[in-house]
Design brief:
single chain; globular; eight-stranded mixed beta sheet; 10 helices; alpha/beta; Alpha/beta hydrolase; Rossmann fold
Length: 298
């Protein structure tokens, strides 16, 4: 397992990171942070219904070998207070307030699925705040099939209940032998933290987030061409939740975006291919952009 030396000199992994909280935008937000407290921090924004324990510890620890990584709970989710928003706009504004409350003037963002919607909106709302953007398993406002996430997901969630499996087994991974092995490994990793685990989402919060996803899928497209920072986009070639065509579309619309599509992988392609994704993400974060020649590596 990957480990690193924290600012106190002790070796810490994400599964052992303490639960922290901070007040922002009138709400108490829960978060965990790991990695060296130097350079530009990396904010992680997760999927529909996700809490702090749904961040893949292999990816978090891998990124935290050389970056200050902060994972958060959205408003109304897990240990964060308040009521879950029903728009991506509100989630983005919450996250901007949270970043400001933490004292950061510049951050990198990694958004997975719903988190990718939020990360895009943050970048468009506060372009000076975001240094680099990583979008995974996600799509643009008005993107193909995004407003159908509920109808696609409910049958597989029911299947999860009937087969005594976490629905992510079916929603995030392909039904091939390779996909099933990856699903099992990923879900086992999410169980590694034994103490001080986060609270699961309430049914109300879960449904309110789904409304936000549907709203995002139905709203007018945003001007992704105005994003002028480095962007890395990654997905599996068979994403049934946020169709892979959306990743290709974003890469086409964002000048200079890097695109990684994993074969025989679904919505959770970065989890299935974490051993490949982490080095790619680190290389992307550490590279100097042609537009930022004077920029120092974090």
């Amino acid at each position: 397992m990957t480990s690193y030396v924290s600012h106190t000199g002790s070796v810490v992994r994400y599964v052992d990171a303490p639960n922290l909280s901070i007040s922002a935008a009138g709400t108490t937000f829960a978060y965990r942070d790991v990695g060296p407290r130097t350079g530009v921090p990396l904010i992680l924004l997760n999927h529909w219904g996700a809490v702090l324990d749904n961040f893949d510890p292999r990816i978090v620890d891998g990124l935290a070998t050389s970056h200050h990584v902060i994972a958060t709970d959205y408003r109304g989710i897990g240990m964060s207070g308040g009521k879950a928003p029903v728009t991506i706009d509100e989630m983005a504004r919450d996250t901007i307030a949270l970043i400001r409350a933490l004292g950061f003037e510049k951050v990198n963002l990694l958004g997975f699925s719903l988190g990718g919607f939020v990360a895009q909106d943050i970048t468009l709302k506060a372009p000076d705040l975001v240094r680099k953007l990583i979008l995974t398993g996600t799509g643009p406002a008005g993107g193909s099939g995004i407003d159908k996430v509920g109808p696609v997901s409910w049958p597989l969630m029911i299947k999860g209940v009937l087969t005594l499996r976490d629905p992510k087994f079916y929603l995030f991974f392909t039904s091939t032998d390779n996909g099933r092995r990856a699903a099992k490994a990923f879900l086992e990793r999410l169980k590694e933290r034994k103490a001080d685990r986060d609270k699961g989402p309430t049914p109300e919060a879960f449904l309110r987030q789904l409304k936000a996803i549907k709203n995002w899928g139905q709203q007018a497209p945003q001007d992704l061409g105005s994003i002028r920072i480095p962007v890395l986009i990654a997905n599996g070639d068979n994403d049934i939740m946020v169709p892979t065509a959306n990743s290709i579309d974003m890469a086409r619309r964002i000048s200079g975006a890097q695109l990684v599509i994993y074969e025989d992988a679904g919505h959770g392609g970065i989890f299935q291919n974490c051993a490949d994704f982490v080095p790619k993400a680190l290389s992307f974060l550490d590279a100097l952009s042609p537009d930022f020649k004077s920029e120092k590596k974090p």
